[in-house]
Structure formats: structure tokens, C-alpha cells
Sequence to fold (1063 residues):
Amino acid sequence: MTAHVHDNINYLKTSKGLKSWLTTVDHKRIGLMYLASILVFFITGGLYALLFRLELWTPNKDFLSVDQYNNFFTMHGVIMVFLVVVPGIPGALGNFVLPLQIGAKDLAFPKLNLTSLYLYWLGAILAVISLLAGHADSGWTFYAPYSLSKNPAVMWMLTAAFLLGFSSILTGLNFIVTIHKMRAPGMTWFRMPLFIWALYATAIMQVFATPVLGITLILMLVENFFHIGIFDPALGGDPILMQHFFWFYSHPAVYIIVVPAFGIASELIATFSKKEIFGYKFIAFSSVAITVIGFLVWGHHMFVAGQSEVADTIFSFLTFFTAIPSAIKVFNWTTTLYKGSIELRTPMLYGLQVLFNFTIGGLTGIILAILSVDIHLHDTYFVVSHFHYVAMGTTMIAFIGGIHYWWPKMTGRMYNEVVGKFASLLVFVGFNTVFFPQLIMGSQGSPRRYYHYLPDFQIFHQISTIGIIILAVGLFTALINLLMSLRRAPDAPQNPWGARTLEWEFAETPPVLFNFKETPVVTHGPYEFAKEGA
Amino acid sequence: MDTTKSVWLPEQASTFANSVDWAFNLYLWISVAFFAIIVVLIAYFVVKYARKRPDQLATAQIVHNTFLETTWTAIPLIIVMALFVVGMKGYWNMRVAPSNAMQVDVTGRKWAWSFDYPKEGVSTDTLVVPVHQPVRLRMTSTDVIHSFFIPAFRTKADVIPGRYHSLWFEATKTGVFQVFCTQYCGTNHSYMWTAVKVVTPDEFQAWVAAAADPSKGKTPAEFGEILYSQKGCVACHTVDGSTGIGPTWKGIWGISVPLEDGRSVTVDEAYVKKSMNEPATDVVKGFQPIMPPFQGVLSDKEEDALVAYIQSLK
Amino acid sequence: MASTTLQEHEVAHHFDDLEQEFESQKFGMWLFMASEIMMFGALLVGGLFLLYLHPDAFAESRPHLDWRLGALNTFFLLTGGFTMARAAGFAQQREQGKVRTNLILSLLLACGFLVVKTIEYKAKFHHGLLPGHAFHGEGFTSLHAHIFFGYYFVATGLHALHVLIGMGLMIWCLKVSKRVQFTRDYYTPVEFAGMYWALVDLVWVFLFPLLYLVG
Ligand code: HEA
Ligand code: HEA
Ligand code: CUA
Ligand SMILES: [Cu+2]
Fold:
């Protein structure tokens, strides 16, 4: 051990001023900056959704033009995917929590970490430029040849996505190395909290899948400028090739999105049941299994795109295997509750919502994998609902639960519990009101990305629009509740939840600059509530 | 066969509908069962094992049970493999058209469909097919990717520029069924609708006879009006004076139109024909040069009819 | 040999010791390379796919690339890989001077590569063998020769960009070598530049046959 003098003050107070934040290499501060940026974009993306959902109140024009509508869902999709859910949990909570949970002083490469954040910001700025440069309206999937129509806004968007991908690769790389090399003494692989396992699996996908997105975007940009003819059928290229490239990344990306949320759910469920998690190794390895299978199933997005029938069949077959690790998780979480000591604090309410929503989201994913049925459901609202159940209902809800869970550690403040619970209830009701009707509407045959729709579907659209209003009120209440706590004096105890992981047992609230006053020595598993200690 | 609409699925009108709906409903009940088990268990545990004292620990630290883990791995595995087989069977059936299928060529363009019957020698903008007759669509696009979706037939396939992609079906009842474009293709993607009209074989023969020469018994302007919707001009041009994707046709005959490059032209027969065949040459001020060229798509007779029609719109 | 002004490397605050630092950085570098390989891998798969789509365009265009120049470049790169490996070896033995010689040799070889590449590019420009719309090569029967050259420029351009980055790393090593003493436990910069160069080599070893030889 080197004889470094630890700065024994709270990391928020070690230095002051904007510059000290912008040049910091402290993973905790970087995590907070990610958190703030991501919330800003979550609200932006949500506002887009609110606006275009209001437009869908009637089948015809209400207050947005067609082009505005098309632009809005594109911006909504791109912002939510590339600026919110992909970087979300790893960038904000992962950054803050990972070194604390494994007993490290920082990530392995603190400067690289700051670089990731700057790349994220640069990508965000380009996305905003794309807004000003006209309207990008290719959908978040950028399918050629439509997206090759030289629309400068689409080009900015592609460049933005490229930088964001780079940022994501660097974060993943940093996490993998940190987990391998920086664990505290006694922190064996199987004493790692499940959140760490989840981040680890995620990081593998970030490092190995994102570069393929990178090259896809490069080729798209070059194609736009020089018309090489790789993807453009008018020049002899193949638009289906572009789709393969895109989904080769974007399918693993959906697991990049959801696996960290599984990690948070495991933490919440174990802690608020005061019970050792059931089937720890199964949950840990199922994250890794999802990672591996996730690389082999991208073709299930292209069942009607005209790849060969044999390819369709193989992709369908492989896709079904994603159900197994997911099922293992869901059943192990449920069983963890059995004979627990369950306390319904705000984070736990979000944790249970994750279970509820993910079960629906996952089950609706399996039906899309059934070849003959997907032919009917592809590109309808059924798919829209499926991926919101997983991306919003699982990932964002887990994210918000995680924010509530680690908020005292990050800020030293406790929020109002009653308001927190009330907000989470509104979120639950609102979310399901938005997306459940879309399942029915979709299987009835209502296509997605539709400004103008059949009057038969109006009632579903209207319920859905009422839903987002409830949802938005709930989310704003939750946010204000959190922010209000900042005005109070620091009052959070070191371990308000009685958790057994390092960040609660060993680190102060808020933690000191290098996380721990002395390097922790780990003597028990992350959820051994029965064992004596702390 | 159940032909009424259900809560979840639209009307059934093709031979595929039964098997797709069967798979859908089978899965629906499987997932309802799993969902119910999970949600009921969670609710029960949350109530039953609610924490009573603040420092209370779980009453039992059960961490593992091999029997349970095996069971809940094996059962879903069996179920999904069964689902795979069901889906695959239905799907291969959809992909392999019977040899006696009637062929129709489908062209998608922004934002309209057109249908050519190579054997019957007719073209239309609404698909008309005889009932109980396998039909094979040979589809391509002139610009970007579209997708041809008939909910009541439970079938869909992407329509890709530079390629022919085929789709087949056999309608099981007469009626008019909605067709959507389901691949995002730009501004008017959600307006790119048409219909399939399923008729009896006799009605079909009569229709073919009438459609073979659509100009018969009509003035050029009347024929032009038909072409206006049939050839897809309607997607971008209005005839009521409002601006669409392209300029309206109402009242443009004879007036002078400003162009993007500063010149202006008078709308006459030559200009209108040039606009159809090489629209990129004279781009009207305030519009994007996005109109597809119709060179080779329109016959001379059709061009004349369209000119007459535009001329008639005062 | 080590001059007296050279300092020893200091371990960063959050690492326990040199070994942990070195191991971490090396692991990080491997991951980065894996990521790059995935990117180039996808590019190569794309290239193979184009070859499969338009074999005629590839067959007709390939004679316009000079395989001898390509082979010369392969020689430059691989020899550079060898000198980089020697540099890393000497760094471990504290032979600061030899490290520098080998770095400079590698740099020269890399320059050689770029010079040849420039000559090749110039010839393409001269004959109008350009990507996409800019293509105006003469005497081609295939309609898709522009795709071959489009791919050629993208693939070799991206590779050349990596050559430039690799050269940047070598220059960085030269700079560090003036300041810090390399030791058995600390020769990280040279090691990394060497690994990176191996990647540049590896990619070329696949690009060369795909573009210059196959078919
Ligand atoms: C964000 C995360 C996320 C996650 C986690 C998933 C998870 C899954 N997805 Fe989803 N998906 C998306 C995001 C996600 N998806 C997005 C964004 C799109 C659309 C993109 C676009 O077009 O814009 C999409 C589209 C999509 C399609 C293409 C649809 C189409 O366009 O036609 C398919 C098809 O197979 C599919 C399948 C699946 C499957 C099988 C899973 C599985 O991993 C689910 C596994 C989980 C369970 C099965 C539930 C738990 C298990 C049990 C309760 C046990 C019992 C279960 C059984 C017996 C079955 N998804
Ligand atoms: C991946 C993440 C993600 C998330 C989280 C969301 C969130 C939401 N999405 Fe979206 N959506 C996509 C990804 C996402 N979406 C994608 C990829 C598409 C496809 C685009 C395409 O076709 O190309 C799409 C498309 C899409 C459509 C289909 C449009 C169409 O096809 O025409 C609809 C329609 O209802 C919709 C609605 C919503 C709604 C109501 C929410 C709501 O959940 C939003 C709720 C948020 C708010 C109301 C903001 C308020 C937030 C706060 C105040 C912060 C609170 C903070 C704390 C508590 C800490 N989305
Ligand atoms: Cu055509 Cu959408
Ligand atoms: Cu997928």
C-alpha cells in the first residue's frame, strides 16, 4: 500500500467552483454530472413524447405538422436511446457506485472517465445542432436509403451517435479493468454485489458491440458524402446490409440498456427484504448468458426485411433462448421475497414495479420472436409497447429506484418518504395506462410512426395520452421531492437501509474523496444479513 | 373458423389468419398464466412477510434450491421450443407460394401503391383479387423501403428498391380490407394506404374487362382524374388549392410560376410534361426537388390525359 | 544509457503499486484493441459481402491496384512491427538509447508506408478511380467499379488514420523516453505503442489480400 494521505473530507466539499467540477477526475463527481445531464435529456425526450402523444389525440392534425411529428419521434427515440438509457445507469449510478461497492479508490482510468463524459457532452451538443440544422426524420433506426437523402440534420445525428458510442466504449473498458484489477482485499468474484455483475456484463457488450455501430455510422456518413454505393440500392448497394450492421449493435444495445437495471433490481429486492438473494450465482451468470446470447439474435428485427428464410428461422430459434436467463432472474427475485422481512420504502416500490413491468415487457418480446406472429406484429404499436415496457418500464424505473436508493449516499440528504411513495404510485399507474392499450392497438394492426391513423384506434390513443399526463405528473413529483431534499441540512445516516454492501457499511455519507478512510477488508457476501457485522 | 374480431386481433380474412391467431392466443394464455403466477406470488409475499419491527431480519435465509432452479429453467425452455416450432411452421407456409398463384406486380413509391396484372394486362391503385385464389405479389420500390401490410390477412413484407420481394396470400372472404405501409418512408408514410378488394371470380373477370381500358368512354380530363389517384400524384398534389408536398394543381394552368433558380415559366403543355418526366429540371420555388420522375411510367395517352385534367382545374 | 536527468515513474494515486497499474493499463489496452478489431472486423465482413455482391466489379478493378506496391507496404508495416517489439524489449532492459533507435526506425518505416500510399492514391485520382459519383474511370464494363474504389478508399483511409495514430504514439514514446527511465516494471508507453502497431499490422494483413490479391 502506498502512503497516500487520504483527504478525509466529504467529496462534495474537497474543492469548490465550476472549474473544480469540470476538471475533476473523481468518479463520484463525474457520476453526478452524468446524472444531471441524463436527467435533462430524459426530461427533453419525455417532453417530445408528451407533445407527439397530444398530437395523436385525434386521427388528423391537431397542432403539429406531419414533418414536425416525424421529427419529434425521431428526436425522442434518438435522445432516449443514445443520450438517456444507454449511458444512463452505467454513466450515472455505475460511475458513482462501482468503485465504492468493490472497495476501490476510483476507477482504473479516472482521466479516461472524464473523457467519456466530455465525449458524451460533445455528442449531446451535436444532437442539439442537428435540431437546429433542420429536422432529422429518419427514425432512430436510420434505415437506408431513406436516411441517405442528404438531410444535414441526419448527418449531425449520425456523428452525434458515433461520439456517444465512443464514450460508451471507454466507459465499458474502464469498468471491466476496474472490476478485474481493483477489488478490495477479500472482495472475491462471488462476493461482488449483483449490480457489479450486471455492470460487468454490460461493459463487455459496450466494448464488443459498440464498435460495429461505429463503423456503421462511419459508412453511413461516407455514403452520404461520397455516394459510394455500399447501402444505396440506386448505386448498386444493399440496404439490407445496413440493417444487419445496425442491429448487430442495436440488439446487444437493448441488453446494454436492460442488464444494469437487473443489477439495481437485485440490490433493491435483497436489501428491502433483509434477505440473502436467492440463487446468487444463477442471477450473476444469467447476466453473462444474456450477453452471450444477445450477440446472436439481431436478425429478429428483420423477419419481414427479406433476409433468407433460413436466416429468419435460425434467428428466431436463438432468440427464444433469451427467455431462459430472464426467467431465471424473475423467478429468483420472486423467491427472494419468500419469508423475507419486506419493507415497502420508495426504492422498493420501484423495484417491485421493475419486476411487474419486465415480466410484461419480456413476455411480449417472446411473442415477437414467434416467426409467424411477428410477421403480423412487426412495426405495429405492439412493438412500441414491448420496448417501452423494457426500456422505460424496466430500465428507467430501475434507474429512478436506484436514484432514490443511493440519493442519501450521493447527497447526504433524505427525501420525503410519503411524497416519494405517492409519486411512485402515480408513475406505476401512468406508465401502464400509456402502454397497455398500445399492446391491444398494435395486435389489432395499428402501424407505428403514424401521424394519421384509422379512427378505430382513437380510443386507445386517447387512453395512452391520458396516461402520459399521469406519468409526467408522477415523475415531476418524484424529481421535485428529490431536489427539495437538497435544501435541508445533511441528515442521512451512513446506512439508512441496513444494507450489507460496502458503500453503505464502510463508506461515509457522503463518501470522502478517495471513498474510504482506510481500504476496507471484505469478510462477508453482499447480502449476508444474518451474519454479525457493522 | 372464428371470423369475428376479438379484443386482441382484427378480422380474419386469409388462410394464414387462423394459424397466426392460434399461435397468438396460445401464447397469450401462456403469458397470462406466468404473469398471474408471478404477480400473485409477489403480492402475497409482500403482504405476508411485511416487516413488523424496524430491525427485523428475514425469518429464513434460504439461498438456493437446485430443484426449483432446474424446474424454472426446464419448463420455459420446453415452452419456448414448442413456440419456435409453431411459429416456424406457420412462417414457412407464408413464404412458399403455391404454384397456381396468380401474379400481381406491386410498386411502392412515395407515397402510393400501384398494382400491375401482367397476365390480365391491367393496372390499378387498389388491389383487386378473387376470393379463394392464391395470389403472389412481386413487389419493388422506386425510391426508399416501404412495407406492405394487410392486417386482416396477417401478412406483411418489406418493399425494397432494387430488389423483388414476394408475398402471397389466399383471401377467404369477400370484402374490402385495409392496406398500410409499415416501413417509415418519409413525410406521408402514414398516408400511404390503399385497400384490397376481395371479389368473387365472376366479379373479378368483369373488373378486368373494365379496367383493361380505363380511358374507354371517358374524356381525357376524366381519365386524367383517375390517373391522378392511380399514379400516386394525389400523395403530393392537391386539387383544392391547398399546398401539399408539391404545389397544388388548382388554377396553375397558364400562370407564370417562379422557379428555385430565379427563372420563371408559364404552365403549358410542354412544361407540365417536362415536370412529369424530368421534375428536377424546373423546380418550383419553395419546394424540395423530391418528385420522382415518371419517364417511362406514363404512356403518351396518360400524359395527355393528365395535362387535360390539370388544364380543367380552374 | 540512462542519463542522470531521467526520473522514475510515479504510480497514480488510486493504484496500490506499479504492478497493479501496469496490469490494469495493459488489460485496458487489450480491451481497446479488441474493440478496434470488432470495428475492422465488421468493415472486412462488409468488404467480403460487397465482393460477393459484385464479383465482376472486384475482378475488373483489382488490376488497377499494384500488388507490388501493396507488398512493399506490407513489408514496411511488418518490419515496423518487429522494430517496435525490439523497442519494448530494450525498454525492459533499461537501454534507453536502443529504445530510441528502434522507435525512430519504426517511424521511418511508417513514413515509408504513407509515402507509398500517397503514390497509390495519386495514381487513383489521376485515373479518376474515385468513390461513388466522383468516379470517372475509363474502360470499365462493370457498372459497380465505383463501389470497389469507394470501399478501397474507406478501408485504406481508415487504416491510414490508424497508422497516423500509431506514429503519434511512437513520437509520444520518444518524448517520454527523454523524461522517464524505462524499467523492467515500467515500459508501458513502448509496450502500448507496440501493441497498437500490431493491430495496424493485423488489419493490413487482412486488407491487403482482400483488396490486392483475392479473385
Ligand atoms: C430495452 C431493452 C429490451 C429488452 C430487454 C428486450 C427483450 C426482448 N426482446 Fe425486444 N426490442 C427492444 C428492446 C428490448 N427488447 C426494442 C427497442 C425493439 C424495437 C426496436 C425498433 O424497431 O425500433 C425490440 C424489438 C424486438 C423484436 C422485433 C420486433 C419487430 O420489429 O418485429 C423482437 C423479436 O423477436 C424482440 C424480442 C425480444 C425478446 C425475445 C426479448 C427477451 O430478452 C425477453 C425475455 C424475458 C422474458 C421472457 C420474461 C421473463 C420470463 C418469464 C416470466 C418466464 C416465462 C416465459 C416464457 C415461458 C416465455 N424485441
Ligand atoms: C429507450 C428509451 C425510451 C423511453 C424512456 C421512452 C419513453 C416514452 N416514450 Fe418512447 N420511444 C423510444 C424510446 C423510449 N421512449 C424509441 C426508441 C422509439 C422509436 C422511435 C422511432 O420510431 O424511431 C419511441 C417511440 C415512441 C412512440 C411511438 C411513436 C410512433 O411510432 O409514432 C410513443 C407513442 O406513444 C412513445 C411514447 C413514450 C412515452 C409516453 C414515454 C414516457 O415514458 C416518457 C416519460 C418522461 C417524461 C414525461 C419526462 C419527465 C421526466 C422527469 C420529470 C424526470 C424525472 C426524474 C426523476 C424522478 C429522477 N415513444
Ligand atoms: Cu411507404 Cu411508409
Ligand atoms: Cu432485438
